[in-house]
Design a protein that fits this description.
Blueprint: E1 3-6, H1 12-23, E2 27-32, H2 39-45, E3 49-53, H3 59-73, E4 78-81, E5 87-88, H4 96-124, E6 128-132, H5 145-165, E7 171-177, E8 190-191, H6 199-210, H7 221-229, E9 236-239, H8 242-260, H9 262-266
Parallel strand pairs: 1-2, 1-4, 2-3, 4-6, 5-8, 6-7, 7-9
Helix pairs in contact: 1-7, 3-4, 4-5
Length: 269
């Protein structure tokens, strides 16, 4: 039996993975801003679920929640930094409040959870930290500048952290999903006030999105269970095949640009 700590467990990937872990007999500390949204898990799985109210942007509350989780369960085997949302809009349109709120949840919230659980994982000499990023944490796309920034920041932090943890025992995987039918672009999303000049960009993004049918997030459950059971898990894992075509193109373009301008880089040596 593994003990999981999952943020944003009331919907989307967090809820799917909590349900999958519980269904196979694991324990889950499930956190959400509104713990009433976790009632279905409690009703189904009883005391193998510990529901906790948590706003990940509140650092003190994060540490208190992790302390409570360890007090009740005794250990943490899988920690899933899943809480987050999408901010849709152009960089110019984004208000200071919107930009800070995006970073507070998607980046700093994950940082606070990470800092809170590390003493537990390192004392155990084991455990697996899953940092839920996105294809938007590898590539950047118009209308998602601040969301991309939050996930790129999380990826940089996590890659450095994985190297820091290597001699201590705990593992870390950056999970990078493609498009799935979660609330990320629905009820959870925040939108900027549009500036007319960017309407052609917005329309092009809408057309591209409408051409894809997002997958059911439930199909990711089996892959996540195999990931957390792996003896030597990867630093990064795509979910779905969509990211491969995107990233293959992006990295070829980046390498080509760097090499095309090598002559100028050499002038700076």
């Amino acid at each position: 039996m593994k003990t999981w700590f999952i943020t944003g467990a009331s919907r989307g990937f967090g809820h799917v993975w909590a349900d999958a872990a519980l269904e196979r007999g694991d324990r889950v500390v499930a956190t959400a801003r509104d713990p009433r949204r976790l009632n279905d898990l409690v009703d189904t799985y009883g005391d193998r679920v510990l529901p906790l109210a948590l706003d990940v942007t509140d650092r003190s509350a994060v540490f208190a929640a992790v302390s409570r989780a360890v007090e009740v369960t005794g250990r943490l085997d899988v920690v899933v930094n899943n809480a987050g949302y999408g901010l849709f809009g152009m960089v110019e349109e984004t208000t200071e409040e919107q930009a800070r709120a995006q970073m507070e949840t998607n980046f700093f919230g994950a940082l606070w959870v990470t800092q809170a659980v590390l003493p537990v994982l390192c004392t155990q000499g084991s455990g697996h930290l899953l940092q839920v990023s996105s294809i938007g944490g590898v590539g950047a796309f118009p209308t998602l500048g601040l969301y991309n920034a939050s996930k790129w920041a999380l990826e940089g932090l996590s890659e450095a952290l994985a190297a820091e943890l290597a001699p201590l025992g705990p593992k870390l995987t950056i999970v990078e999903p493609g498009p799935y039918g979660t609330d990320w672009s629905g009820a959870s999303a925040v939108h900027t006030e549009p500036i007319d000049a960017y309407e052609p960009v917005r329309q092009a993004r809408r057309a591209g999105a409408s051409a894809r049918t997002p997958a059911d997030p439930a199909v990711t459950a089996a892959a996540i269970l195999r990931l957390v059971d792996a003896e030597h898990p990867p630093l990064r894992l795509f979910l779905g095949l969509f990211p491969y075509t995107v990233v293959d193109k992006l990295y070829k373009e980046r390498l080509a640009t760097w090499n095309d301008w090598r002559w100028l880089a050499e002038q700076a040596t």
